Amino acid sequence: MHDLVEMNMIRWSPPPSNWVKINFDSSVRSKAVAGGFNLKIEAGKPLVATAFNSGVASVPLVETFALRNSLVCAKEKGLSKIEVESDFKLVIDIANGVCDPPWRLLKIFQDFKSLRCNFVSISFKHVLREANFVANALVNIDIGLRIVTSRRSVFLQKHLLSLPSPM
After folding, report:
1. How far, in Å, CA of 78 to CA of 75, rounded?
2. Is the CB of residue 104 less than 8 Å from the CB of residue 60?
3. What's the CA gap between 11 and 125, in Å, rounded?
4. Which of 1, 13, 88, 142 could form a disulfide with 63 if both were Cys (CB 3.0 to 4.6 A apart)?
């Protein structure tokens, strides 16, 4: 007799009603690092999706900037209940006070502490990469476009960079 094994799918889950979920990530390709984040409302509907190129910065630095930038965006939109997820455990642990930030991230986390006071409720959760897929895909698309444009003519660069940003 075969035992049935229940399999749990690893996937993104929507935030509770009246909350917004932020997922952030970074990606490295050909020595270039990009970061980004997305904000989604309860039904999974995108509110904001953005990515940025940070050149040759370290992954922890870019992940921290992505977190900080996502909170600035949430504050500017007047959001009050935030659920934050990332697959980068170090940044989530620092945000939850589990450990202190390395000195290179200290200034950004000082900004982060003042930003987090702007929300009625905010939580930080480490998730597996599969549950952070949209943020990961977003930064990989952004970094892919930048690498392609850096290897092509000025003509291609001008036209590819004029594409509308993913929102």
Report:
1. 5
2. yes
3. 14
4. 88
